[in-house]
Amino acid sequence: MHRQTAIIIGAGPAGLTAASELLKRTGIKPVVLEESEHMGGIARTVNYKGYRMDLGGHRFFSKSDRVMQWWLDVMPLQAVSGGKQPIAHQGQVRTLPAGGTAPDPDHEDLVMLLRRRKSRIYFLRRFFEYPIRLSADTVARLGIPRTVRIGLSYLRSVLFPIRDERTLEQFFINRFGRELYQTFFQSYTEKVWGVPCTRISAEWGAQRVKGLSILKTITHLLKQPFRKKSDIAQKETETSLIEQFLYPKFGPGQMWDEVARRVCATGGEIHTGWRATRVHTNGWRVTAVEAVHSPSGETRAFEGSFFFSTMPVQDLVRALSHPPPPEIGEIAEGLIYRDFVTVGLLVNELKVKENSGVGPRLIRDNWIYIQEPDVLVGRLQIFNNWSPYLVPEPGKVWLGLEYFCNEGDSLWTKSDEEMIRLGTEELARIGIIDAAGVLDATVVRMEKTYPAYFGSYDRFDELRQYLDRYENLFLIGRNGMHRYNNQDHSMFTAMLSVENIFGADHDVWDVNVEEEYHEEKVAAPPHPNQ
Fold first, then answer.
1. What integer pLDDT is reported at residue 94 of this predicted model?
2. Do 317 and 351 sit in the same domain of this protein?
């Protein structure tokens, strides 16, 4: 029998999940085309002289039991001290042993760490807890007048909410009040997108912030003393309020390198350095993807029965061999993407420290939102706190400064040396490092990191309906769907799309719209080789 083939554009979390699921659940052979030489897309890990960088920060946390278990099937949880470690799975509690079969990260590499989550906002040259906690410390840092304004502003939003909620600004004001929005959300959000919040759709808030609000924050705080600390999955906790997450020993790229290895070992193919340039169609079916091998210039057509695209929707529409109607092309051309530059700085120490019983120590934040309006840096990662194994030299602090920009603008086109000087100067200016203490640095640029919820996005449903007419084409992942998906959302769209091949009727566009993911299980057809 002739074995069917699925062509998958992109080796990020969605593309590699699709390849893995096809091999596990069907007889279809996946062929993955990846433009770069790396696995994981924006979830890859950059290795700079042994210092590893996580581009964007990837918590391995999901409300989907299926996704949580999928990760642990690839990389088992580390040995946990203090007895056995329960973890929720498919509505039941499984117990993972703390020793024995559970790997020790000091001796084994393929291991998932259990990490504590901490992130704060840096504003007025001070740290504020994120989410904001209504504590005496917060009031003291804000001052009584500002705190009163925040309270009155929130009360007004509760009593007189904006009914026709269309913009991101309106979304934030309805949940936090205007004063708190302007204090803690506006500057950072506008750094990320480069436009005022009044020009961004409220859908971005529904996608990323979801149910978080002052009321949720207060409820979470009151419940804290009574919360059981054993449930890693934390299904009842808003994503922005979780206290624990899983994390690969050597960063997210380790997960996707291992998945790629398994895909190739079980009959799939992954071709790196191949850029998809043409999508050949016949009626409402895709017949082949034409790609160019960047190192050699070779052009090749990859034929298949099914096609999964994680490439930016704008590029997909441009690549269609039969151009769409003008209005569809206009929507695609009007889609906007935000790009991303990470500056890695290696330093001896931070000027800001945390007090402990034995003296000052490194602050424990995984990442810090920089709300200060006088600097361009938007977020700061401390890689030591994601995993100590990302930093090979004890005593050194490895930082990631995140800058949001548009390809071709003044930030994007700065040389590496200029970006390193900018990052060093800005962190020194706001009192986090001493500029003279920078030991080494590097710069990494990522294109089309964030699909934007403005431009022609308000007409995106028309474009989506047009592309959905291609019966064997599946749009998955963040850029493939032009949605600001988390890693687990991207994976789940791939899982559901694979199930749709053999008879399910999932609407993958519902993923991350509802509070809980759709967990319906669909049995795979018999594997032809079994």
1. 47
2. no
